[in-house]
Write a structure and sequence with these properties.
Elements lengths: L16 E5 L9 H7 L4 E2 L2 H6 L3 E2 L13 H7 L1 E5 L2 H10 L32 H11 L3 H8 L5 H7 L1 H8 L4 H12 L6
Parallel strand pairs: 1-2, 1-4, 3-4
Amino acid sequence: MRSSGSTPSLPEPPIRLGLVVVGDDHPRACTGRRLLHRGLARELRASEVAAGRGVVLDPYAPVPLTVADLPRARAGGLVAIDRSWNRLSEERAKRPSAPAWGPGGRRLPMLLAANPQHFGRWGELNTAEALAAALWLLGHRDEANRLLDGFAGGPAFFEVNRERLARYARATSADRLLREERRLFGGGARS
């Protein structure tokens, strides 16, 4: 039998999601714990993160996440640190120049939160939104959408950030993404 010349491509395996639960936020509002409960992420210890090969989402990292990070995310997964924004800000004020979770962390580009706790705030995404945004930027859009199913504000997250996500996803390097942030925010984006 002859081949038609086109071989169907196999679907990409999902990116593994890891979570370090610091436990300093309200358990009922904790989206990370709900991801663990639903089996969508696996709980990690801080020591596993420090030794890991994955991409750690760090809101204070100087380098933004881009599609160039996809090989590292495929190899070691995406890791989020689930903790209170208030406590993170307090800790950051004490040690402003130290990376939150070691070198090599990546921050998400500027996005708008759609969750009820931080609705309309720039950059204050909950854990589920952060992991979904990272998956979306890495080209795993179906996974990103499934991750936010069942969360208050989940569907709205992609709607309110549609243009930003589309523009960020086209950036193939951190420098290009930083330029895109500056275009979107008139030079006010952190870099």
